[in-house]
Amino acid sequence: MRILYMGKNKPAVIAGLEYLVEQGHDVVAVAAQKNKMPGSHCLVETAHRFGIPVTSDIALYQNIAAGQCPPECGYHLQDIDLVISYLFWKKIRKPLIELPKLGCINFHPAPLPDYKGLGGYNFAIYEGAQQWGVSAHFVNEDFDAGDLIKVMRFDINPNRETAYSLEQKSQSVMFELFQYVMDLIASGQPLPRIPQLQGGKYITRADFEALRKVSETDTVEEIKRKVRAFWYPPYEGAYVDINGESFTLVSRELLQDLRP
User: What is residue 33's predicted lDDT score, i.e. its pLDDT?
Assistant: First the structure.
């Protein structure tokens, strides 16, 4: 298959690209973050290792509108079978959604329709969810609202999880889901299209930031849950404002968990 691959710098995303190449698919181009955090995995470097051109979603939209790609792009957009969004951080719009023959598929790091948008890990831990999951779904013009292909769920202990630990578990399951979907497509079987039920939670950036802030009215239990829910070093976690400055919080219990 001729595939456009869109993702961010995460180990599971890189494993997904490697899997596509190993299975003999023609990855036409990779749309990725060009910045690299120290010690992080870099999708751009992986694409370069395989000789795959790197682009951006902006360039893709421009090239589709123009009806052709400039020679320096190193790729063309004719006969695209599949567009894959694997933790891609931007909304995908028409005409990119309509470009592939088989569809545009998103791999979402939360169970749908329960948690849409961003910050699912954080809200799940704060709200005491006993189960988590990852989803594969077709992309439409609304965020995380397209027909479901499959949701893989697993049990969690919200009193022990942090945002970091839950992400690590989710990434492992998501790669299993990615392999399952790609193998299903390769077998020639039609993909399930299950309309999403109404309900669930759509989390915006404002919702995320509001929950991250610790206020003087929060109970001790709420503060402990926020600390776990937003613990993801080196990023700022749950915080308090003191005299105009923000201070990230860590609990004694969390420090004990981190001790060897």
Answer: 77
